[in-house]
């Protein structure tokens, strides 16, 4: 890229932050136009800082999807997830503080205080407006929230339906700093196909398991072989206890078969080729508290 072209472009890091389950990953996937990470209705589905890259014209937005910020994380894994999100907030050129329409609780208050302490330029993004039956209630809610920080602007939208998504993109483009692109314009993420496969498998698990297991589950791809017309993937599912292993496998292996089928269908759509997926379940007691296990799973990314 020439100096003239560099001066004509704008590029910046955009942190998507908020409490758990406000729709950060859904919003990033929608903005990028591809499913980069797992999304479910369960809090703390996001366990990594994931970059989604959106390039439009002379502007490039590097979106940092972050884990939900807990008020008082107790487990080691949740402490690391919160630390990852707070670090991203401090590194961003622009912060998108994402809240849910007509809801602002103690978790949102906590994130607001972190934002205020950081002093970073920020947009207030009011998500899930499609779920609001009485639209007249939105404006008073926004008026109150807008007074809490010196926001660059307020954008109501729906990450699920895409409503007013371009409004957010337009706002972000206006506030990007001048500079060269950080990534190739055709690149959509910093994450590999292997990582995205782990996310698709974990999503399939979370969607089918009850409340008793999801937070004790992790997925690691241990084998990947591309052959003509087909890719063979071997993935390990980690759980904490024998009882959880039984739930994940299910009677006669029925649950594991359902998970495998759902994940395989998503992977074939994502990768555009036939997938042979083999899942293995292993008990590793205390892995969410293990520094070694968390590093191996790529969950501790703040070092």
Automatic annotation (TrEMBL):
Q: Which residues bind GTP?
A: 65-69, 127-130
List the InterPro entries. Answer: G_ERA_dom, GTP-bd, GTPase_Era-like, KH_dom-like_a/b, KH_dom_type_2, KH_sf_prok-type, P-loop_NTPase, Small_GTP-bd
Molecular function per GO: GTP binding; GTPase activity; ribosomal small subunit binding; small ribosomal subunit rRNA binding
Q: Where is the Era-type G domain?
A: 10-178
Instruction: Give a GO biological-process term.
Output: ribosomal small subunit assembly
Q: Where is the KH type-2 domain?
A: 209-285
UniProt keyword list = Cell inner membrane, Cell membrane, Cytoplasm, GTP-binding, Membrane, Nucleotide-binding, Ribosome biogenesis, RNA-binding, rRNA-binding
Q: How does it sit in the membrane?
A: Peripheral membrane protein
Subcellular location(s) per record: Cytoplasm; Cell inner membrane
- What Pfam families does the database record attribute to this sequence? KH_2, MMR_HSR1
What main location does UniProt list?
cytoplasm
Any one GO CC term of this protein is: plasma membrane
Q: What is the purpose of this protein?
A: An essential GTPase that binds both GDP and GTP, with rapid nucleotide exchange. Plays a role in 16S rRNA processing and 30S ribosomal subunit biogenesis and possibly also in cell cycle regulation and energy metabolism.
Q: Which family does it belong to?
A: Belongs to the TRAFAC class TrmE-Era-EngA-EngB-Septin-like GTPase superfamily. Era GTPase family.
**Assembly description:** Monomer.
What is the designated name of this protein? GTPase Era
Q: Which organism is it from?
A: Thioalkalivibrio nitratireducens (strain DSM 14787 / UNIQEM 213 / ALEN2)
What lineage, starting at the top, does this entry show?
A: Bacteria, Pseudomonadati, Pseudomonadota, Gammaproteobacteria, Chromatiales
């Amino acid at each position: 890229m020439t100096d003239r072209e560099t001066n004509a472009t704008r590029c910046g890091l955009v942190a998507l932050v908020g409490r758990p389950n406000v729709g950060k990953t859904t919003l990033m996937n929608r903005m990028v136009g591809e499913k980069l990470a797992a999304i479910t209705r369960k809090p703390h589905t996001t366990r990594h800082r994931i970059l989604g890259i959106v390039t439009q014209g002379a502007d490039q937005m590097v979106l940092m999807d972050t884990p939900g910020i807990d008020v008082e994380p107790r487990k080691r894994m949740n402490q690391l997830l919160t630390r990852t999100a707070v670090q991203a907030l401090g590194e961003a050129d622009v912060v998108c503080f994402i809240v849910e329409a007509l809801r602002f609780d103690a978790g949102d208050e906590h994130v607001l205080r972190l934002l205020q302490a950081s002093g970073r330029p920020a947009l207030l993004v009011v998500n899930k407006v499609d779920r609001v039956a009485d639209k007249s209630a939105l404006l008073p809610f926004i008026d109150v929230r807008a007074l809490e920080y010196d926001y660059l602007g307020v954008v109501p939208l729906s990450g699920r339906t895409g409503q007013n998504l371009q409004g957010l993109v337009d706002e972000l483009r206006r506030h990007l700093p001048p500079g060269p692109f950080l990534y190739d314009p055709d690149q959509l993420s910093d994450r590999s196909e292997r990582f995205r496969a782990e996310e698709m498998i974990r999503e399939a698990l979370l969607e089918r398991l009850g409340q008793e297991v999801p937070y004790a589950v992790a997925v690691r791809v241990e084998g990947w072989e591309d052959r003509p017309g087909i890719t063979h993937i071997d993935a390990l599912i980690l759980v904490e206890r024998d009882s959880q292993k039984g739930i994940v496998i299910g009677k006669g292996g029925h649950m594991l078969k359902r998970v495998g089928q759902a994940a395989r269908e998503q992977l074939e759509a994502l990768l555009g080729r036939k997938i042979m997926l083999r899942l293995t379940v292993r008990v590793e007691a205390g892995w969410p508290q293990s520094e070694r296990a968390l590093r191996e799973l790529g969950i501790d990314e703040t070092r």
